[in-house]
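User: Fold this; tokens only.

Assistant: Input:
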Amino acid sequence: MASLPLGHHHHHQPAAATIHPSQPPQCQPQPEVPRRSSDMETDKDMSATVIEGNDAVTGHIISTTIGGKNGEPKQTISYMAERVVGTGSFGVVFQAKCLETGEAVAIKKVLQDRRYKNRELQLMRLMDHPNVISLKHCFFSTTSKDELFLNLVMEYVPESMYRVIKHYTTMNQRMPLIYVKLYTYQIFRGLAYIHTALRVCHRDVHPLTHQVKLCDFGSAKVLVKGESNISYICSRYYRAPELIFGATEYTPSIDIWSAGCVLAELLLGQPLFPGENQVDQLVEIIKVLGTPTREEIRCMNPNYTDFRFPQIKAHPWHKVFHKRMPPEAIDLASRLLQYSPSLRCTALEACAHPFFDELREPNARLPNGHPLPPLFNFKQELAGASPELINRLIPEHIRRQMGLSFPHSAGS
């Protein structure tokens, strides 16, 4: 499990839970809710009932029945909803405890339109990666107002990167570089998996959605070439410039821009582009990258024709960060934060960047002497990668342990 130990300030490691695409979690709406079978999930190996709580979010008990496939006995699992950990237009996320095992889980409760399948559920049932939050199971519930809610039961990871950043900011300290590398490397591993293996774009990468694992796929979507998408997506500070320019045929490189913003924020201790609104967000980007050329604007959105921008020169990247910043960190940020989406490196190329070479050292350790979490147990994300790239991604000592053999590139 690719958890991230954070030294003496942060002790909790995420619970290990894996779902396999061949055995997707199933969910079943409440039988009393009328629905058309074509619109909702129809598998019948999970049901759930709120048996206490009177529509309250916390303090009630939810009982679900799972199993019953391939001759296995059905099993009832009960959860006590303990506290709200997140709210938004989507609904609410609360921490709950399994009464049978004591295990902590996160349950995301979203209002379900009976006419449509839930995209987040469809995507999460496919996810199986150490750096992506795992779906344990799901169920539907109703309220006294006859509203239908989808409940996604996921592994609970208590620490968000936002809180870790805030910890170091409060202490007037910069995050140790080894932690920056661990965090961002695992972000790129998760993105490489969803971009390559699933062809999914997250569309809302920011520090609150990186709890060592990518989570919150409420905005995620499979991108199809030629298919239009909404441009008002992604939290503002991390929104790629092509979205600000109104592009609707964007690519997963919008996630790469967002991850670049997260990297810069970890290095700086504050957001790199803290725009107060959509227009100001573009101004903040121009202050650093300079005014985009006509060609760069065309690459971001071919339909954008208003070119009236003040001509501002790019601010040198080495002046954006403090003087002692390693040149590899500056180089990676510059490769991620490019106006032209096609010029940004891919998530897998980012993982192979020299900035992360320290993680590939045989004797790499955390500051407290503990070993690093597993970082090289790659899955389908290596499909299609060149032998040279794979050689850079999997260090020789790991290849020897795994008995792997790849052709050596010239000079490697």
